[in-house]
Design brief:
By secondary structure, the chain is of the alpha+beta class. The protein is built from four helices and four strands. Helix 1 crosses helix 2. The longest helix has 21 residues. It is globular, with a radius of gyration of 17 Å.
Length: 179
């Protein structure tokens, strides 16, 4: 067949980012599932920051050992590129999805409503009057610093302490090459 459409010189802008991973063992507790979600959130966050964008919607997908798939999504208060926020939203969604009985074999985080990085963060009253307010600026700086170190020295050069526990989960999983 012949295609008369024009060849695009540049790739179109991503409408969403996401990664998922099949786990080598059955996940039967929340702590392990949260660690897998953190690993995926690290990967998604790195890609979002690399492209200089932020996201407004986070979705989580869960596939059980018997291949039953469910997913759920939420709109964030403010667009973000911070791994901590992506992970926190993913954990909230996971708690709503999982029945705490059925073993899990596959987890994924997917995002949408991508906006430019230059958008401002909406200040939320919950954040202002919280007992332990979150310093989003510091979290963003730490993420960017980790990304720079991983780019220069490899993805295993910086790991969160929770990945040193001995559970066989990569600190950054879901589509990141080991090379």
């Amino acid at each position: 067949g012949r295609d008369e459409s024009v060849v695009e010189r540049t790739a179109p802008v991503n409408k969403g980012y996401g990664n998922s991973t099949t786990i080598a063992f059955d996940v039967c507790n929340e702590a392990t599932a949260f660690l897998v979600l953190l690993s995926i959130a690290e990967c998604v966050g790195m890609r979002i920051r690399r492209d200089g964008v932020k996201l407004q919607v986070v979705a989580v997908g869960v596939k059980t050992y018997d291949l039953q798939y469910t997913s759920h999504q939420m709109v964030l208060k403010s667009a973000t590129d911070i791994t901590h926020e992506i992970h926190h939203a993913a954990c909230e969604l996971f708690r709503e999805l999982w029945d705490y009985k059925t073993p899990i074999r596959h987890l994924g985080i997917h995002t949408s409503r991508v906006v430019d990085d230059d958008c401002c963060r909406q200040i939320c009253l919950d954040d202002l009057f919280a007992e332990h307010p979150i310093d989003y600026e510091q979290l963003a700086k730490a993420d960017r610093m980790s990304d720079q170190i991983r780019t220069r020295y490899g993805i295993d050069s910086v790991k969160r302490a929770s990945f040193v526990s001995g559970i066989p989960i990569d600190a950054v999983s879901g589509g990141v090459s080991r090379d």
